[in-house]
Amino acid sequence: MAEIVLRNLVKTYPGTRSPATDDISLEVRDGEFLVLVGPSGCGKTTLLRMIAGLETPDSGSVQIGGRDVTELPARLRGLSMVFQSYAIWPHMRVRQNIAFGLAMRKTPKAEIDRRVGEAAELLHLTDYLDRYPAQLSGGQRQRVAVARAIVTDADVLLMDEPLSNLDALLRMEFRTELKRIVGKLGTTTVYVTHDQAEALSLGDRIAVLREGRVAQVGPPLEVYDSPADEFVGGFLGAPPMNFLPARVDRADGRTRLRIGDRSTAAPATLGDHPGDEVTVGVRAENIEVFDADGPDRLAARVEVVEPTGAAILLTVDLAGRQLKVQAPPTFRIGPGSPVWLAVDPERLRCYDPADSSAITVSG
Ligand SMILES: Nc1ncnc2c1ncn2[C@@H]1O[C@H](COP(=O)(O)OP(=O)(O)O)[C@@H](O)[C@H]1O
Ligand SMILES: [Mg+2]
């Protein structure tokens, strides 16, 4: 068992004013793939380095596999790491690079050969074992770094933006590979990225960090569907979640949300507080777009039309606010045209304009 339990971790670097991590508590289950995601500078690397034992917290504790390791040096924590600047040795062949950690531990030669062979197979490096790093592509070099990390059979795998040196296509390919490999190994993994798409695709759960604090933790689609606040809704997703001011209204015994001079049905969980101002959050793909008016539709005007291949992304003006709407690829419309929008009320999320926290978090 190698679950990780982080309790109230605070770390402020000398000479800085605000803490890099500000009272972070998190649990990573045994065998889980947890992604730490958030904008640059939010404390991801600092948190990972505290788990690794490369940074000492000012207060709080780190437990791995039921053991308090807060005071334990990195090499005794039973973990392996892959970092952004994957240091593989240029003067060593792939085989020696992968075997490096095992050789350091004086593992018997036959055992090293067996494990290196297995790791190479898993990472499709078998045919490259006798090459030098300079004779490999970027993606292959990255795979060597991962092979070296997994070959030691550590209880915990820590990765800090391991794909950020790869170009977009390779990133996508390798992301899929990584998911397959880590799934097979079942190693408890903490993975850091600033890329929200990577986080959504890789994590069993994701923890969204903001300014040294955990904004939300949960399964990717749950966090994506029901962001705890406007920051999370805006950070996850491309395009980000739309936010609009609205007013709670009653009509015919039903709760409605007035947006501009029209209104739409409110989600059941909103409750009944006519007159309240709320911020409505809605994802582009949850807005249905029509070229004619109808019941429960909001009137808008198209500003920009951007085909993305699989869909058409419309930027529309709704009551003076810009909104992103995803239309089917067959939808034909030009800028300046009127459109009408409909939203399933259960896809709407409502936030308190005062502090942007969710009024309703429903699945
Ligand atoms: N060695 C350091 N000395 C001083 N400040 C640091 C150091 N490392 C990181 N920081 C600061 O701590 C905050 C969190 O940094 P970091 O954990 O690297 O964020 P992330 O990995 O999310 O980009 C940032 O404000 C950063 O400038
Ligand atoms: Mg970082």
A few lines on this structure:
The chain is α+β, with helices and mostly antiparallel strands and 363 residues long.
Account of the 3D structure:
The protein contains 8 helices and 20 strands. The protein is of the alpha+beta class and 363 residues long. The strands form 4 sheets. The protein has a 6-stranded mixed sheet, sandwiched between helices. A 5-stranded antiparallel sheet has the order 13-12-11-14-20. Strand 7, helix 5 and strand 8 form a beta-alpha-beta unit. Bound molecules: adenosine-5'-diphosphate and magnesium ion. The site of adenosine-5'-diphosphate (ADP) has 11 residues, from helix 1. GO terms for molecular function: ATP binding. This is Sugar ABC transporter ATP-binding protein. Keywords: ATP-binding, Nucleotide-binding, Transport.
Describe the secondary-structure layout.
Layout: E1 4-11, E2 21-28, E3 33-37, H1 44-52, E4 59-64, E5 67-68, E6 79-82, H2 94-104, H3 109-122, H4 138-150, E7 156-160, H5 168-185, E8 188-193, H6 196-202, E9 205-210, E10 213-218, H7 220-225, H8 230-235, E11 242-251, E12 254-259, E13 262-265, E14 277-282, E15 287-290, E16 298-307, E17 312-318, E18 321-327, E19 338-343, E20 349-351
Parallel strand pairs: 3-8, 3-9, 6-7, 7-8
Antiparallel strand pairs: 1-2, 1-4, 4-5, 9-10, 11-12, 11-14, 12-13, 14-20, 15-19, 16-17, 16-19, 17-18
This protein binds adenosine-5'-diphosphate and magnesium ion.
Magnesium ion (MG) binds near residues 44 and 45.
Keywords: ATP-binding, Nucleotide-binding, Transport
InterPro entries: AAA+_ATPase, ABC_transporter-like_ATP-bd, ABC_transporter-like_CS, ABC_transpr_MalK-like, ABC_transpr_MalK/UgpC-like, Mo/tungstate-bd_C_term_dom, NA-bd_OB-fold, P-loop_NTPase
Protein name: Sugar ABC transporter ATP-binding protein
